Amino acid sequence: MNLTRYFIGACALLAIVSSCDDEVSNIGNSLVTDKSEIVIDSSFTVTGQSVLNRDIQSRTITQLLGSFNAKEFGAFSSEFVTQFMPAMQLDTTNVVDLDSLRMKMLLFVRTGDFTGDSLVPMGLKVYPLTRQLPSPIYSNFDPEGYYSEADCWTPESKIYTANAIYNDSVNSLSYRTVSVDLPYEFARKFYDKYKSSPQTFASPQAFAEFFPGIYVKNSFGSGRVINITETRINLSYRRKGKVSTSTGETRDTVYNATGIYMAVTPEVISNNIINLSISPQLTAMAEQGENILVAPSGYDTQIEFPVMGEDGIINKYKSEAGDLSVINTLTFSIPVTEIENDFNITPPPYLLMVLSSEKQEFFAENKINDDKTSFLATYDEEDQCYRFSAMRQYIMDILIKDNVAESDYTFTLTPVDVVTENASSGYYDQGQIITGINPYVGKPAMCKLDMSKAKIKFTYSKQSINN
After folding, report:
1. Given this model, what pLDDT does residue 373 score?
2. Average pLDDT of every residue of the chain
3. Can you tell me the distance from the alpha carbon of 442 to that of 114, in angstroms, rounded to the nearest whole number?
4. How far is the CA of 123 from the CAs of 31, 72, 127, 155, 175, in angstroms?
5. CA dist., res. 277 & res. 127, Å (int)
């Protein structure tokens, strides 16, 4: 047992009895001595098991595209379906030569934000959806019946690499783009719809009735998955305008105009269609009782947090703390072992610890951690561990429960994506706040959790009084 007691101090308190005329009397004086200690108990052990987490809601604008086969991880592929948020206004004044309408889809990829080989050529095809996407939608979604193979927008596969993706200033920008030309027929259909029914562009729901979205499919190649952080569609056309001459006069001209008229945003349905054939190595680790995390669409770890039983937190606290005690902190840290691989697949950046009975509800209702039944940890790359540091309220709630069930201490550890935004009050920057926690689809990730070395630190203050 690792039980440490720190002596804080002792003091003598004089009981003072005052007379009605405020004179001090010595009658009834007694000496009361109390002793305070801070107790840190880290004697608890945690057990767990790996559990499959195959079908996830990938509520994120991050899109994964490509495929690879890593012997340590498995065979992984991802395609995606998505709706679009339309621009509410399209400037159609002075437009000339509608035959000049052009549409281009741009997939933005941060430099180096991919898994696998940067040089291998990959191919994609784009299809317009023929019906509305379901909601909710999951990573095992089957696009069959939602598009027509005969209606491909890119009959010739778009070829791209991660090293030489097109960009105007490829060396100076922090991102690359995959640029895909879309058919003129759709550009004209889009333009004509705005002219005849601008209200169609007033909301993503109304727009989806007109244009359900696209399906982007891997057409050939293997060896890389790219992380698309932004998807947009630009419309270009020719417009009349005026320019100033060197003499100060103006003359009519025609110039090319380009605008962003569709984009993938959090308000629309977007889903990664993920297929992972987990490697025999990882499967064997899970079957042998090792606690592993594999994402997306791989393994979670389920644990029993040691609150009950003879050696549990509650029993030890009640038997040792006494009546005059205060709970200070409860923390939980888990060391991590990175699993060697040739694709630079690392541990997930964030880990959610949530009651297993509430996991589905947590994601379905777009919750964030409340530090009562759900907790968030960031991966510490330097120390190679996850730390949950705000569990005090959880143990206090358990203490006052009349009946503690298994569902009250069975948790799932699952990789997540965290959405943040800057918060400010007046002139003061309050830093970033968490606005969303979603199932992890950032990029392939994996690690082993060393539960035998996991450490719980339960700290409380106790006081004893000696007359």
Report:
1. 97
2. 86
3. 10
4. 85, 25, 14, 11, 19
5. 26
